[in-house]
Each structure stands twice: as structure tokens, then as C-alpha cells.
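Narrative of activities, Objective 1.

The group set out to show that a structural description can be obtained from nothing but a protein's sequence at a throughput compatible with the screening campaign. Below is one input-output pair from the validation batch, recorded exactly as produced.
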Amino acid sequence: MTDVTNRIIGEINTILGKEIQQENLKETIQKYINAQTKKGFPFAKLTILHYQMLDGTELDKVISVAAAIELLILSFDILDDIEDDDDNQKLWMNEQSFALNASTAMIFICIDVIRKTDLKYKERAISILLEYSLLSISGQQIDLLSKCRTEKEYIEMALKKSGSLVSLACLVGANLASDQYLEIINRYSQFIGLIGQLNNDIYDLQNWEGKNDLLNKKLSLPVIYLLGYQGNGAEIISSYYNGAIEKDEMVKNQKFISKMIVDSGVLVYTEIIKRVYQNKVKTELQKLNVDKKFIGQLLDYIH
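Output recorded for this entry:
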């Protein structure tokens, strides 16, 4: 575990100790944080990265803000899972009342932590947090409506839902240091969020042991492609989504469907779309006049 990760964990523990007095609520949030630790706190690290990239000089204070951002993102993850109801392997899905209360607490903790700092531009940070949280919530609403039927509609939704949260983390860090490059940062951070969503889509299409977008009738980008596919066996997907066959039939035909997914070209298609946005990120990063080590760290987010 890296030193930065350890510092973020330590700061989260400090925040919870100060902000939450009810012991069971504190333990519940800590349990959820522990479950997320394997992800390595990428949003907090993006906040720190952008603060340092723009020559911020009060890193200790910003680590507290970054830890608070990670709590906010976890609250969104919990709400997203409960709203979608498609991943019962997550521990908060088995205690949804507690999870909803914990997620509400984490949202207000994040705002309160930033408000209590003496950082010069904290009001800008809070404004960004509120604006981009609402954009993400709007994207989630579009996703829940299951009305994205084209590549364009899906990408627009994902840029709002996933891209806005990455923008939030990056722009909070950047704004606490400077007002430079904000439009560029906003663009490439949204693309990074979209790339992350496409990676999830590819995984969730092929994961038959847990969350599976096909079985849950989700309209991910690969599924939209498959619903328009005319090749051998494609009708099983449209029949399931139209209610003509049941989930048991899909599970029974897992091997056939897995082969059809490969044969359809959907995985190649999704990778090509991902590559388009990887190149867009690289184009935007070339416009930054910053230390190259930060560019390298940002490129790690687009694999």
C-alpha cells in the first residue's frame, strides 16, 4: 500500500472520528471504506494530483479534502448500486437502510470538511462539488430511465454520470491551487470517466458470476450494439429484453451467448470507442504546460 493511500486512509479515519458521533454509523461507514480500499482511492489521488500539478503549496490540508471527496464518491457508488439493484455481492446491498443513511452522512461530511478548511479557494471547491454532483445525478436519472438506444445517447449519458464525478475530483484539486487550464481539465477528466465506464461495460457484459448487464437488462453501450446485431443467435438478446424469454433461458445458454458476444465484434467495437476517447485525453493533455510526471500519472487512468 502506497504512502499516499495510507495518508488518505488515516485522514478518512480522522474525519470520521471528528464528524460522526454515533458509533454504529461510524463503524458502518468504516466497513464500507474498508471494502473500497482495494480500489486504491483513485478519486482522492486525482484531487491531490491536480493540486500538485498546478503548484499548490498546502498539501496537508488538501489531503483532507481529497479524503472527503473519496467519501462523497463512495456515497454515490452506494446509491448507484441500490438504485440499479443489480449487484447483490456488494455488502451494502444486504443492509440497504443502513447504507442509505451512511451515504447521506458521507455527502454532508464531504461538504463540511471542505467548509471547515482555511484554504483560500474553498468556496470555489464547494461550488464545483455541488455543480458536478448534480450533473452526475442527472446522468444517473437518464440511465435509470433506460432510454439510451444509440451510441450518441449513451455517451452523452455516461459523460454526465461518470465523467462528472471524475471532473469533480480533478477540478476541486485544480481550483484549490489555481484557475489555470480549467476548461482543458474539465474536458479530459470527463473523457477519463467515460473510459472507466466503458471498461466496466466490457467487464459486466462477460461476468456471469456476479453483476451481468445482459441478465439485468441494462442498456450499456455493448448491449445497445448487441440489440442491433443481426448475426447468428442475436435474437436471443432481443427476445430476452422484450420479455419473450426468461432469465433462466439466458443462463442455460451462457456458453452460446458468450461465443456470440465474441463473434459479434462488440468487444472490438467497444475497445475502438474507448481508444477514440483515450486519444482525446492525450490531445488535451498536450495542451498542459506542466511537469511531465503528472502527464504520465494521468495517462495511467485511461487504460
